[in-house]
Amino acid sequence: MRRSGQSPTIVALLAAGLVYSFPAFAENLALTGAEVGAAGSRYIYAGTVLRPSGDSPWRMRLWLDETRYRYDKNGATVRAQERGAEAAAGLGGAGDNSWWAAYLGLRYDHAELSPDDRANDSRGGHLRTKLQAESEQGVGNWRANLGAAYVFGADKYWLRGRMMYPLAPYSLLGVELLRHGGPDYTATQLGGVFSLPLGGRSTALVKGGLRHDENRGSGGYAGIELSLPY
């Protein structure tokens, strides 16, 4: 664990260094989205994946996000708000009916707790290492999409699986199952997803379903994800 006022600068310098080290970029992807759910949960993000021109497997991932959630402590409800920034380098590849990518980099996050919980290791600012992997594979007529991430030192994780079926060219309908959390909370989500084209290769994905937070009960969630090649 590390706390430092210079941590955001370190992430920014790493991001600049990664961009400078790539000679040219080709199939880049902008990603943004938002989700709201039960137990005061919220997640908003904006990021980009940069891929060099040619057949190079290298790529870079830059990310900004904000997460809100609640947990119980000594009979009181603690509201947590965490803002994060990431810069990671990775490898990836694609076949006729599949793709994969894996990233390793730094994440700086700053968490505010109300009321304050001094025993919470997420409190304040931290610079940590993050590992993330994603893949998609054709399974018959279906598309299987898997993702996982882990933040070392924070013991925070994210797991997601999606199965999607094509309804028409570039439109997909399916289901998703997520499990994510850390020392403060654990949530499980099960819902439906619908992906539709926006023009060109851009897509929008809408989702919604049931979210269960351990020790806080169940409720709904809904969100949208945008994928914008450039």
TrEMBL record:
<feature type="signal peptide">
    <location>
        <begin position="1"/>
        <end position="26"/>
    </location>
</feature>
<keyword id="KW-0732">Signal</keyword>
<protein>
    <recommendedName>
        <fullName>Cellulose biosynthesis protein BcsS</fullName>
    </recommendedName>
</protein>
<dbReference type="InterPro" id="IPR031485">
    <property type="entry name" value="CBP_BcsS"/>
</dbReference>
<dbReference type="Pfam" id="PF17036">
    <property type="entry name" value="CBP_BcsS"/>
</dbReference>
